[in-house]
Design brief:
Blueprint: H1 12-23, H2 30-36, E1 43-48, E2 54-58, H3 59-75, E3 83-87, H4 92-103, E4 107-110, H5 117-127, E5 131-135, E6 154-158, E7 166-167, H6 168-174, E8 192-197, E9 207-211, H7 215-224, E10 234-236, H8 243-256, E11 260-263, H9 269-279, E12 283-286, H10 288-296, E13 309-312, H11 319-328, E14 333-339, E15 343-347, E16 365-366
Parallel strand pairs: 1-11, 3-4, 3-5, 5-6, 6-7, 10-12, 12-13, 13-14
Antiparallel strand pairs: 1-2, 8-9, 14-15, 15-16
């Protein structure tokens, strides 16, 4: 993994420039940036089961398995720029699938596992997905109905399959690391990596193309705002079906080469305390609802819980949670703000040289590299620019 970058006294403008050059390079390759450049024996994730058994997943394993899955995607007709929907929980198969998609130069379309069929159908049809990868327990949502069209996408199931479906495990067993189509595509920094749809709170959800170069922003957030260090045991509890979990629990740690926790289970306060205690989590991130649930849980906080840093995003952080964390956890929960379209950009940063006293109710200050400006005129659709050529919109596919 990359070494710590000391932030106290560094020139943040230079650091931002370096990250933009790294991830925006015309020869940028997502598979290289997120996997292949890291030592093969370095741990990428510790996959934790509900019973607290755990398995380390190395970059070497992810490299080989994602090469196999990329070859399978190639045989399924997935080409560079094609959209691939993913309706999966947190698991090793999820990470393999994502890296296989990106190795192929395809575009990941996140599908939150709590979505009902209409929300899934909107994203699959608007992105013109060629393949959808789904956990077996989520498969009923894809059954043709008045809410779900009988799409022309290929369905790959992690688990038992029915007629017309493809088995993830059988695909992985049918190819090897040298099969054709496993090559890591050089796409450049402007190529799409993810097509993430907005939540739709202000209208019909819209597809936001996230290019490879956005990894510069994702990397800088973990470095500047979260203060992620090589010595940390990091756990971002957010779901990868949305931006905060996908960007900062999966893609960001992969880009940095930072080992992190991946919990193969739904959220529960008691299990969260147990994970923090057993695995020595020192740097934790989650939504305010997570912190409130932890605060309200009657489970005694284990003596082994010792957080160096705690961060929050997704909704405003209330003062009572900040006070509770200071009294019970010995650290401050720092509020961070971002959007689907930009990622995290205004934060109460943790890093040396950026850290200030927290003012309850304040989002903080812009992260280096961001310069928000006030506009008295709201943009309208007619004034919004078209996506650059090669980036998918809700109606145009990249080629």
């Amino acid at each position: 993994m990359t070494a710590d970058i000391p932030t106290n006294g560094i020139d943040f403008d230079v650091r931002v420039r370096d990250l933009l050059e790294e991830y925006g390079d015309p020869q940028a390759c997502a598979a290289e940036l997120l996997c292949d450049r890291h030592p093969a024996d370095a741990v990428a994730f510790t996959l934790v089961e509900p019973n607290l058994s755990a398995k380390d997943i190395t970059y070497g394993e992810l490299r080989d398995k994602s090469r196999i899955f990329a070859a399978a995607l190639a045989d399924l007709g997935v080409e560079q720029g094609d959209a691939v929907g993913v309706l999966m929980g947190k698991s090793e198969a999820l990470v393999v699938a994502l890296l296989g998609i990106w190795r192929r130069g395809a575009v990941h379309v996140p599908l939150f596992t709590a979505f009902a069929a209409p929300a899934i159908a909107l994203r699959l049809t608007a992105s013109e997905a060629k393949v959808v990868i789904v956990d077996e327990d989520q498969k009923p949502k894809l059954a043709p109905s008045e809410d779900m069209p009988d799409g022309d996408w290929t369905t790959v199931v992690v688990g038992a399959v029915a007629d017309g479906e493809r088995s993830f495990s059988e695909l992985m067993a049918s190819y090897d690391v040298d099969s054709p189509g496993n090559e890591a595509c050089i796409t450049g920094g402007d190529a799409p990596l993810i097509l993430l749809f907005t939540s739709g709170t202000t209208g019909v959800p819209k597809g936001v193309p996230i290019p490879v170069r956005a990894l510069a922003s994702i990397h800088s957030y973990l470095e500047f705002a979260v203060d992620l260090r090589r010595s940390d045991t990091f756990w971002n509890a957010a779901d990868p079906g949305w931006a905060y979990g996908l960007f900062y629990a999966i893609a960001g740690p992969l880009a940095i080469g930072q080992p992190s926790i991946l919990l193969h289970a739904g959220f529960s306060p008691a299990l969260s305390w147990a994970v923090m205690d057993k695995f020595g989590v020192t740097n934790f991130a989650g939504a305010p609802t997570v912190y409130r649930a932890l605060r309200n849980d009657p489970t005694p906080i284990p003596e082994g819980v010792s957080l160096r840093r705690a961060s929050s995003a997704g909704e405003p952080l209330t003062p009572d949670v900040i006070t509770w964390a200071q009294e019970k956890l010995g650290t401050t929960v720092r509020d961070h703000y971002g959007q689907t379209e930009q990622g995290m950009m205004i934060c109460n940063c943790w890093a040396d040289g950026l850290r200030e006293d927290v003012r309850p109710g304040s989002m903080g200050r812009p992260i280096p590299g961001w310069a928000p400006k006030y506009s008295s005129t709201a943009p309208t659709r007619s004034r919004l620019p078209e996506p650059p050529a090669g980036l998918p919109s809700t109606r145009r596919r990249a080629r």
